[in-house]
Amino acid sequence: MSTATEPKVRKFESVEGAVLNSISKPDGIRFRLVSYNILAQVYVKSSFFPHSPPACLKWKARSYTILSVLKKLQADFFCLQEVDEYDSFYRKNMESLGYSGIYIQRTGQRKRDGCAIFYKPSCAELVTKERIEYNDLLDSVKTSNEAKGDEKAEDSQKDSRDLNDPLVRLKRDCVGIMAAFRINKPFHHMVIVANTHLYWDPELADVKLAQAKYLLSRLAQFKTLISDEFECTPSLLLAGDFNSIPGDMVYSYLVSGYTKPSETIEEEEEAPLPMCSVYEMTRGEPKFTNCTPGFTNTLDYIFFSPSDFIKPVSILQLPEPESPDVVGFLPNDHHPSDHLPIGAEFEISRE
């Protein structure tokens, strides 16, 4: 008999008014999206997580606990960050659960993790996808330097750690992936799902903001491409680990196209897309999605572009700070990652 502790997976809770909406629109499309930084095994060291029970950090235990969590969440779309062992483990095991996947590995040669979107072909058909590599930001710096006849590019090769050099500062090897899906039942509708993991260091807040701006510019271009090619108005969902807390520069920028910009965002720098956080507009942002001794706060979000035909109808509940399953910090026997999964169920009505 196994003595392994079952992972703690909370339920989806209806958003106020959702029941009424579902009754009034019985033919709407419903789908569930979950975002989860699953903690790459390459970053799991007992020295990083001395508070965690050693057994729960081992790959064999963690990998199958993560799978168990994903299975219980029953999402139609999973946006996962810090995915390593994609080909050797996740792809085939997720296939056995009825999912197909797309994946982008981080840019650097030493970086083994990346972002994956898993989706149910029974729910959605993959139409097209694009990679997002934030190292592409270096191209604009190089072009600017060349235009000025600046020799800084050559100098940066001499000292690859000089953070005052924008070519060094911006090269963080972070990535994202975006894809267009066609949902066919009970009617045709295009959905764009984007997944990303922004840089972590609070000392490089300007880099995170530059990544966020590049992300939304690419997403806006992709939405226009899909709209024009398929003559439709796609729904737009953006999820991931943004390494940014509610109200900071990155968060404020991402929602600035929908809400009144905060003082930290210049008016001319408003986001090119209207995006709002599904938790913020329903229950308020969680108290935390990342839980370690050195840092406990919210870093993970699901944003969507509001419209007359897409509404959140339920959201995944999260624990309170005093909940027994998170006391002592993460990872632990109940949670295989230092992050918690977040999720929402959406309903799309006919346009």
From TrEMBL:
Could you name the domain of life of the organism this protein comes from? Eukaryota
Question: Which part of the chain is the Endonuclease/exonuclease/phosphatase domain?
Answer: 35-339
Write out the GO MF terms: 3'-5'-RNA exonuclease activity
Which Pfam families would you find in this protein's record?
Exo_endo_phos
Gene3D superfamilies in UniProt = Endonuclease/exonuclease/phosphatase (3.60.10.10)
Q: What is this protein called in UniProt?
A: Carbon catabolite repressor protein 4 homolog 4 isoform X2
Q: Which organism is the protein's source?
A: Raphanus sativus
Which gene is the coding source of this polypeptide chain?
A: LOC108818982
